[in-house]
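re: the backbone from monday

yeah here it is again, tokenized this time
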């Protein structure tokens, strides 16, 4: 049970890191995620069925996600479409594109295909206990992605990207084009989301055009849980760690709701309700903390 929660949390944690970039770093509400997640799954599965090397297929999935994110940013930047609507437009278009990629089918199974996960399992059998092989693999994958992302945000480009979400005018005054930065940031975000979708397809054994339904809510809830329950910091390394931990905690909550919700007459159909209520609670707690902090500051000044 615990291994399953950790593996799911780490797979979807890569998606959460992508949502973290747009939600916290860029302040760009991006709904492309609901389309780029199944896009990564669809590209991964179709490449595998065509005989493409699995690791190359993973890169194709990542590149597809980057392209989808860049389309959203270009619609927003050059057609003056609000960011929220730009994401919805790309997400809607991706639904049809994903069905096309899957050969006009909504679901394509890969149960008999050799995947990266089966390759890793074959190599590590006898070295690592069977129940922990996937967990070890995804811990390594999550750490690699997190470290690469941390290194990126320590570069000049990454630090400028971080400044864009806080003060766009300051970035413009430095002679940097914010449109270019948004295109890079939203592209990178959706690349990570598609990468997560590619791993999820291999873990689940299929790609489905509906895999991304509500995934943005899961990503937002995970980011917020990580910020509330793990630790507070402005350091990018800590923030990305919190995003990963938030994903694991979120999937722990979903697991309890899925398997023990019947004790309070809940069904799996109520999981979206739990996600929504969870986000509302976190927002309310956040607001109450800010109000208390403001009141305390006012008392001190008196």
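seq for it, each position gets an aa:
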């Amino acid at each position: 049970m615990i291994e399953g929660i950790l593996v799911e949390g780490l797979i979807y944690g890569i998606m959460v890191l992508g949502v973290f970039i747009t939600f916290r770093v860029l302040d760009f509400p991006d709904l492309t995620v609901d389309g780029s997640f199944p896009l990564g799954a669809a590209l991964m599965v179709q490449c595998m069925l065509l005989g493409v090397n699995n690791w190359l297929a993973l890169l194709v999935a990542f590149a597809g996600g980057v392209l989808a994110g860049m389309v959203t940013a270009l619609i927003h930047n050059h057609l003056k479409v609000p960011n929220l609507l730009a994401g919805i437009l790309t997400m809607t278009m991706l639904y049809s594109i994903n069905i096309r990629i899957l050969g006009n089918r909504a679901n394509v199974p890969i149960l008999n295909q050799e995947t990266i996960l089966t390759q890793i399992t074959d190599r590590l059998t006898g070295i690592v206990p069977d129940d922990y092989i996937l967990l070890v693999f995804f811990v390594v994958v999550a750490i690699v992605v997190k470290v690469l992302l941390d290194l990126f945000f320590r570069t000049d480009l990454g630090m400028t990207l971080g400044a864009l979400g806080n003060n766009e005018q300051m970035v413009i005054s430095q002679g940097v084009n914010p449109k270019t930065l948004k295109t890079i940031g939203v592209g990178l975000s959706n690349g990570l989301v598609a990468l997560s979708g590619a791993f999820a397809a291999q873990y689940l054994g299929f790609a489905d055009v509906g895999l991304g339904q509500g995934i943005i809510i899961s990503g937002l809830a995970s980011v917020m849980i990580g910020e509330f329950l793990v630790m507070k910091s402005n350091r990018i390394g800590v923030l990305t760690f919190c995003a990963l931990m938030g994903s694991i905690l979120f999937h722990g909550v979903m697991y309890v709701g899925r398997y023990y919700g019947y004790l309070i007459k809940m069904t799996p159909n109520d999981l979206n309700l739990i996600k929504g209520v969870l986000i509302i609670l976190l927002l309310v707690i956040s607001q109450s903390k800010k109000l208390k902090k403001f009141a305390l500051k006012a008392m001190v000044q008196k």
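The chain has a mean pLDDT of 87. Residues 271-301 form the longest helix (31 residues).
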